[in-house]
Write a structure and sequence with these properties.
heterodimer, A: 361 residues, alpha/beta, 12% strand, B: 104 residues, alpha+beta, Arc Repressor Mutant, subunit A, 3-stranded antiparallel beta sheet, two-stranded antiparallel ribbon, Pyrroloquinoline quinone biosynthesis peptide chaperone PqqD (chain B), PqqD_bac (chain B)
């Protein structure tokens, strides 16, 4: 067992946006009892002792936590590299300056499209203008900036514009991430999954931009595993490099693992060290012993680790099966059917889509 | 020189010059991890574990040492690290934008 490198600290699931692609869990109301400042302080210290080097402050919208500056300062005092993953709503200049002083290392701001009407429609609230302004503040204060865009059927055709926007605000990195189907995105999959033609067009644009911007901006493109031959690697292996602490103190290998039928582990009742080493939620799929065929005898078993356990559970009801995104999976048909539906001609616009609620109630 | 060396999927652009003064990029931080007893380079989404000489080079990327001085220093510390290799390593770091250079 290795030490984890990264902690995803999900400070709250409250969020001013209502994106239909959100990967937060559907049962948001179960997470209202959030850890307080003192409890987060202990979590960060325990994480650092465990070997964690990077702390991703996420949510929901982490800026909704009034104690965010304190939490950043604590993480910074422990020597952790701190990364704020934010919608930027609530990132006023004064708040930004406080976070800078507290030692925040890096800011990642999401945007939903390249122009106000489309971006605001997807976000469910007027936000585009404020996001672009906040990106300017981040650069002015000398922070490195990552612009993050979750791609789906309703914005993937705008990828050239998104790249131009990222360039114009001076982003150091742009992350173009095809939607991962968990939580609200899973509920809205039929409306969000792009067609093959959309993906292929976008990938041509991305390749050209990569070449053109080679020395100025890193372009990270997260492929759509529904269209791949092999599944995405599970976080570098289940409970191998990362851990997640949810707003109420539950500990998971990754945020998507929340619905899996494994006993809860919580920082309220146990230390992070014990949870990492011994709790079933961490040990269930660690290593390769749990693997069924075709993974067990596959040459790629330590490349993609059987794919995503959470996706296997979601699609088949059994987290110990091969990720159906893999073309070798006996359940691959489940993915093929979803892809066929996305390419059946009708546009996604007429498919029902439920935005996630802003509040947790 | 380094097992996790910056990958070279993009062709190398320009090499570093002897008078350049490399400096770790703003979004990059070199730290000592007490759990692993290793120096570790941290970036927004990833960490890299350089080997001893790689970490020494990174430590000298402080905006004060020139490339020539770093090469000389590494040569003094490790007889087995050729100057060209240090320059190539620095060039890769610059190409990946983990290190920036100022001239003179």
């Amino acid at each position: 067992m290795d030490s984890p490198l990264g902690l995803l600290a999900e400070l709250t699931y409250r969020c001013p946006l209502g994106c239909a692609y959100c990967s937060n869990p559907l049962n948001l109301a179960d997470y209202q009892d959030e850890l307080n400042t003192e409890q987060w302080r202990r979590v960060l210290a325990e994480a650092s002792d465990l070997g964690v080097l990077q702390c991703h402050l996420s949510g929901g919208e982490p800026l909704l936590r009034r104690d965010l500056v304190e939490i950043v300062a604590d993480a910074n005092d422990l020597g952790l590299y701190t990364n704020l993953v934010t919608s930027a709503l609530g990132l006023s200049r004064s708040r930004a300056e406080q976070l800078r002083t507290a030692g925040l290392d890096h800011v990642q701001i999401s945007i939903q499209s390249d122009e106000p009407a489309g971006s605001d429609r997807i976000a469910g609230t007027p936000s585009f203008q404020r996001k672009v302004e906040a990106m300017g503040v981040v650069k002015e204060l000398g922070w490195p900036l990552t612009v993050n865009v979750v791609l789906h059927r309703h914005n993937i055709d705008r990828v050239a514009g998104v790249l131009e926007l990222a360039e114009s605000v001076g982003a150091d990195r742009v992350e173009l991430a095809n939607t991962q189907y968990y939580g609200w995105a899973w509920r809205n999959r039929a409306a969000l999954l792009p067609s093959r033609a959309q993906l292929e067009t976008a990938e041509v644009v991305v390749r050209a931009a990569r070449e053109r911007l080679r020395n100025r901006m890193d372009i990270i493109y997260v492929v759509s595993d529904y269209y791949g031959r092999y599944p995405k690697p599970c976080m570098g292996g289940w409970a191998s490099r990362q851990l997640t602490v949810t707003p109420n103190g539950d500990v998971l290998p990754c945020p998507a693992a929340q619905p899996l039928p494994l006993p809860r582990a919580s920082v309220r009742v146990d230390s992070l060290e014990r949870i990492w080493a011994d709790s079933p939620v961490m040990t269930a799929f660690r290593g390769t012993d749990w693997m069924p065929e075709p993974c067990r005898s596959c040459r790629r078993r330590e490349v993609d680790f059987g794919g995503c356990r959470c996706q296997a559970f979601q699609l088949t009801g059994d987290a110990a099966r091969t990720d159906p995104a893999c073309h070798l999976s006996p359940d691959h048909e489940l993915v093929v059917r979803a892809v066929e539906a996305a390419n059946s001609g009708s546009t996604g616009g007429d498919r029902p889509m439920s935005p996630r609620p802003h509040r947790v109630r | 020189m380094d097992p996790a060396q910056p990958n070279t999927r993009t062709p190398l652009s320009v090499g570093v010059r002897g008078s350049d003064r490399p400096l770790l990029a703003r979004h990059v931080r070199l730290t000592f991890c007490r759990t692993r007893r290793r120096r570790i380079l941290m970036r927004p989404e990833t960490v890299m574990v350089p080997n001893g000489s790689g970490a020494d080079i990174l430590e000298l990327c402080d905006g004060r040492h020139t490339v020539d001085q770093i090469v000389a220093e590494l040569g003094a510390r490790y007889r087995t690290v050729p100057a060209d290799e240090v320059r190539r390593y620095l060039t890769r770091l610059v190409d990946r934008r983990w290190v920036e250079v100022t001239d003179g």
